[in-house]
């Protein structure tokens, strides 16, 4: 079943091509896991563009001002989507993955939001 079956994309030919562009690696990283390797999707220009376009089509007119991308896949798709919808992009990282100086962190479960001092997300300066 494609994700689009529940999101108004049923019958969209892009979904089949996207699904076929993703390599499935059985039993990685452990037995019973079917790892979805998107590197093959990223190598397929049309499938990658279609993936981004589906998100852009869905969120373009929703007034979104910031797109947050969770590492690592979010870093690959998030900036393209943010650029296309006219939003800013903020990477979300695991704890202790960002430098201490000059970065404000806000813990949420196992992720932290990194916003440079002086950014729209953290308008204060480091000296404040």
From TrEMBL:
EC number: 2.4.2.7
Keywords in alphabetical order: Cytoplasm, Glycosyltransferase, Purine salvage, Transferase
Pathway: Purine metabolism; AMP biosynthesis via salvage pathway; AMP from adenine: step 1/1
Domain of life: Eukaryota
Reaction(s) catalysed (UniProt annotation): AMP + diphosphate = 5-phospho-alpha-D-ribose 1-diphosphate + adenine
InterPro entries with a match to the protein in the record: Adenine_PRTase (IPR050120), PRTase-like (IPR029057), PRTase_dom (IPR000836)
Major localization listed first in the record, in broad terms: cytoplasm
Compartment annotation: Cytoplasm
GO molecular function, one term: glycosyltransferase activity
Similarity-based family: Belongs to the purine/pyrimidine phosphoribosyltransferase family.
Subunit: Homodimer.
Protein name: adenine phosphoribosyltransferase
Lineage, broadest ranks: Eukaryota, Viridiplantae, Streptophyta, Embryophyta, Tracheophyta
């Amino acid at each position: 079943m494609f994700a689009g079956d529940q999101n108004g994309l049923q019958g969209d030919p892009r979904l089949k091509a996207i699904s076929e562009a993703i390599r499935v690696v059985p039993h990685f990283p452990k037995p019973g896991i079917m790892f979805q390797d998107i590197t093959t999707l990223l190598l397929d220009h049309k499938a990658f563009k279609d993936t981004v376009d589906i998100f852009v089509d869905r969120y373009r007119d929703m007034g979104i001002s910031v797109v947050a991308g969770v590492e690592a896949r979010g870093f690959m798709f998030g900036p393209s989507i943010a650029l296309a919808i006219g939003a800013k992009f903020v990477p979300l990282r695991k704890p202790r993955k960002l430098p201490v100086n000059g970065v404000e962190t806000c813990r949420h479960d196992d992720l932290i939001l990194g916003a440079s001092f002086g950014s729209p997300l953290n308008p204060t300066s480091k000296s404040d």
